[in-house]
Amino acid sequence: MAEKWYPVIDYTLCTECGTCAGFCTHGVYDAAKAPVPVVVNPAGCIDRCHGCGSICPQGAITYVGDNTGWTPPHGLSPSEAPACSCGCGADCKSVAVDFLFLDREACERCAASDKELDEAVAELSPVLTTLGCCVTVNKVKMDSPSLAEQYRFVSSPTIRVNGADICGEVKENRCASCGDLCGADTDCRVFEYAGRQYDSPPKAMIVDGILRALYAPAPIKEEEPYVIPANLVQFYQSMQEKSGCGCSCSDKTGGCC
Question: Are 127 and 169 a contacting pair, CB within 8 Å?
Answer without folding.
Answer: no
